[in-house]
Design brief:
Blueprint: E1 5-13, H1 19-36, E2 39-45, E3 48-55, H2 57-69, E4 73-83, E5 95-98, E6 110-112, H3 120-126
Parallel strand pairs: 2-5, 5-6
Antiparallel strand pairs: 1-3, 1-4, 2-3
The structure holds flavin mononucleotide.
């Protein structure tokens, strides 16, 4: 088994999410990720999520199961999964990129997307 694994998926938000929902979701996710040793990045634009998670294969498998059961998103599409030599987001239990208007609570680890709906962090997450 590889030491580290990375998983990338895309999904659609079931409901339009505002700052408060996103803040709460990220706070919860970050607490659990810190316990599981998971790091990564979540992008939320146009009601679409793209998330990469990285960590020990057992932790990734467990979170992947939880994510697939979560009714807050649907049409979950696995884009990539494989071994990883070095974490790309070692500084963040879950970095988050979205529109500045969705960061009313000034959460740490927030990155504003540009006009194309991208940030440097989101690009780092999505690259092969
Ligand atoms: C788009 C999206 C991203 C999520 N990201 C994470 C995450 O990074 N870590 C996490 O623990 N939960 C995350 N969650 C929540 C999980 O789906 C799940 O509710 C949580 O891990 C609790 O799982 P459990 O009910 O199986 O214990 C996310 C949910 C959504 C909708």
């Amino acid at each position: 088994m590889p030491v580290l694994e990375r998983l990338l998926y895309r999904s659609k938000a079931t409901n339009t999410l505002g700052s408060l929902h996103l803040f709460n979701m990220l706070s919860e996710a970050r607490a659990k990720n810190a316990m599981l040793g998971i790091t990564g990045h979540l992008l939320y634009t146009e009601e679409v999520f793209v998330q990469c998670i990285e960590g020990k294969p057992e932790a990734i498998e467990s979170l992947w199961h939880s994510l697939q059961r979560d009714a807050r998103h649907y049409d979950i599409e696995l884009l990539a999964r494989g071994p990883l030599e070095k974490r790309r987001f070692s500084d963040w239990s879950m970095a988050f990129s979205s529109y500045p208007s969705l960061n009313r609570f000034n959460m740490p680890g927030f990155f504003a997307v540009d006009k194309e709906g991208m940030s440097a962090e989101a690009e780092r997450c999505a690259k092969a």
